[in-house]
Amino acid sequence: MTTNKLHVEVKDLDSLRFVMTILREIRERESSIEMELTPILDMYQMLEHYLPGGLVDKDEMDQKTIMRPSWRKLVDMAEGIADTLSQIQGQYKKQLILDVREFVADCRSFRSDFEDNGPQQPGIPPQEAVERLRRYKDELGIRERKMEMYVAGAAEHAL
């Protein structure tokens, strides 16, 4: 499953963040995976030694044989993807900086528009005020999601 997740094409900050999260999970697991694999493989070795042949299913034995090489292959693949991402991260960082500047200007404009045309304007009917509030709330939600994405992108570039 992790191999499939690593094959996600990095085309924007969101997909970059997703891949970086997967890479971080692999790095964190790398230190403990050997401690998890060794006892399993030792148990299989004891089963093979003390039990008569054919008790353990052939498919299970094949899976046991490829556990360590499969993990190594995944780690190697993750290292290759990390190298590729480090080569292209500069362009994403530049785009992130431009996007954040544009976002700041958009937020200022949004606030100004809210203050000038928002639901608190005197003399508007209550139904109109509710409708304006709902519209500005929806627009604020969009901006909050953008902000979360930009903050996450900035955190990824800080690593």
**Count of distinct strands:** 0
Q: How many whole angstroms does the radius of gyration measure?
A: 26 Å
What is the percent of helical residues?
A: over 70%
Mean pLDDT level: 85
Distance between the termini: 25 Å
Q: Tell me about the biggest sheet?
A: none
Please state the overall shape, judged from the principal axes of the Cα atoms.
Answer: elongated
What is the tally of helical segments?
4
Residue runs with pLDDT of under 50 for 5 or more positions: none
Helices and strands, in order, run as HHHH
Strand content: under 5%
- The computed structural class is mainly alpha
Number of separate domains = 1
List its traits.
86% helix, mainly alpha, 0% strand, 159 residues, single chain
Briefly, what is this?
The protein has helices spanning 2-6, 13-50, 58-117, 126-158. The chain is mainly alpha-helical.
Give a topology summary:
Blueprint (H helix, E strand, L loop, with lengths): L1 H5 L6 H38 L7 H60 L8 H33 L1
Helix pairs in contact: 2-3, 2-4, 3-4
Can you offer a commentary on this structure?
The protein is mainly alpha-helical and 159 residues long. It has one domain. It has four helices and no strands. Helix 2 runs antiparallel to helix 3 (58-117), helix 2 crosses helix 4 and helix 3 (58-117) crosses helix 4 (126-158). The protein is elongated and about 90 Å long. The mean pLDDT is 85.
